Amino acid sequence: MSSQTLPEAFRLRAGNFNLLVLRLLDPRPEAVLPALGDQFRRAPGFLRFAPIVIGLADLEAAPEEVNFRGLVEGLHKLEIVPIGTSGGSQAMKQAAQHAGLPPLRAVGGAETEPAAPPPEAAVPPAAVEAAPRPDFSGSGRAAMLVTEPVRSGQRIYAQGADLIVTATVNPGAEIIADGNIHVYGALRGRAVAGAADDATARIFALNFDPELVAIAGFYAVREGLGDAPIGKPTQVRLEGEEMRFAPLG
User: Fold this and answer.
1) CA distances from 28 to 60, 72, 82, 163 (A)
2) Residue 63, CB half-sphere, CA atoms under 13 Å: how many?
3) What is the 3-state secondary structure (H, E, C) of the chain?
4) Which CATH number fits domain 20-98: 3.40.50.620, 3.40.640.10, 3.30.70.260, 3.30.390.10?
5) Chain segment 148-203, per-residue pLDDT in tens
């Protein structure tokens, strides 16, 4: 009987992902979880289904003082998905690993504190759109061009690039860029610029009516936009840790 070669079922490849880091400053789940719940109330969907890394580098506590299992269970109840840890002492990492949180390492073996984009999780990871190939803009930084409306539930990420959208960003959609974001249409969903911690990044929109805007980890939800020119051409920038809104033109 001749042997038959089975079709290939899977392949393993190293990947490089931009993940949100929850940097613990307090070891008590009862202190951390209510604060996260408050984020949910102010920005529904902000962290829902987000894969998140637990940052241990700032935690001043003995390993036995940290209730990692309680933290993991509480995050799952909030529909946040903890996938591992970064930083911390060897004893702290071992305590976290017993709760199912392995230490994460970058490609090449060095442990890393992943960069935090923001707000990255209104939809499950499966809904993330494949990015078009960037082209170089006149600024010298790569720019991704999106010419179709960004639908509710879509997330588009311009890694290492600016993002230019010439159509509407609908409610429930999310656009993310390591650089600037330009929306030559209505911005009604979520826009996250400077996702690689670039505090000089800006957001520009011809019709500014977002659910959430963020730059380098600082964000404002719809209710916190203050005197921003809603419905008008607007630019958003950071001044220190304050978000500033100014009319365009």
Assistant:
1) 12, 12, 16, 39
2) 12
3) CCCCCCCCCCCCCCCCCCCEEEECCCCCHHHHHHHHHHHHHHCCCCCCCCEEEEECCCCCCCHHHCCHHHHHHHHHHCCCEEEEEECCCHHHHHHHHHCCCCECECCCCCECCCCCCCCCCCCCHHHECCCCCCEECCCCCEEEEECCCECCCCEEEECCCEEEECCCECCCCEEEECCCEEEEEEECCEEEECCCCCCCCCEEEEEECCCEEEECCEEEEHHHCCCCCCCCCEEEEEECCEEEEEECC
4) 3.30.70.260
5) 999 988 888 888 899 999 999 998 888 989 899 999 999 999 898 988 888 999 99
User: pLDDT for 133-145, tens place per residue?
Assistant: 444 344 456 899 9
The pTM (predicted TM-score) of the whole model is 0.53
Tell which residue, 181, 190, 216, has the closest CA to residue 18.
216
Judge whether residue 2 has pLDDT over 60. Answer: no
